[in-house]
Amino acid sequence: MTPSEQALPESRPATRWYWRSLIAIPVLLLAVFAFGARVDILDYVASHELRIATVKPGEAAPYARADWSLVSAQFVDGGEGTRLPLSKDRKLLIVRLKAVPEGRVVDEAQRQAIWLGCSLTLLDGQGQRWSPLSFVLSRDISRALEPKSTPVAGCFEAARSIGLDGQPTLVEEKFLLPSEAASDLSVRLSFRSALPDALSFQLEPR
Q1: Cβ proximity of 77 and 179 under 8 Å
Q2: Mapping DSSP to helix (H, G, I), strand (E, B) and coil, where does residue 17 land?
Q3: Percentage of the chain lying above the pLDDT 90 cut
Q4: Which of 202, 37, 132 is nearest to 141 (CA)?
Q5: Is-contact 120 73, C-beta < 8 A?
Q6: Under 8 Å CB-to-CB from 168, ≥6 apart: which residues?
């Protein structure tokens, strides 16, 4: 038997593995892509408001270990007789919610895991969205409107005290928006730990 005849049978397994490797490459690439896509989808779901429950006027809804209800929604114009220097084409909307926790949460780590990452935003019928005014500006406006009253905490600040004594907690945010957008409004409430669930409150500002 010649050397060339001996080498021929030995090359067949190598050829077989070569073709198997070529076939496996797209399968492995597809598996890597599918895994990465799954991680991206899970991250997206965990960080966006996707399941929105609408709370009817005068009712409360359970969310993030508390019952939430709309207390008031009020427009403040910047015309004569007010303490706010608002232009005529802008309106200030003050929205107040109430949270009644399921009970007192003694464990600080658990309380933070439930209620930190609070977000309260304003939407109109066209899908435009507004964030609330800053903490400092909101406090200044509260003192200008009601100098003798203690300002109600905003969403992020109020979340630090929810559940400390098991008592209801008020949350107030202020939004500055164009006058023409002051209709068909709602506010969206969410907590980072409760996403993708969120609550929506339809507003009928006074």
Answers
A1: no
A2: helix
A3: 37
A4: 132
A5: no
A6: 98, 99, 100, 101
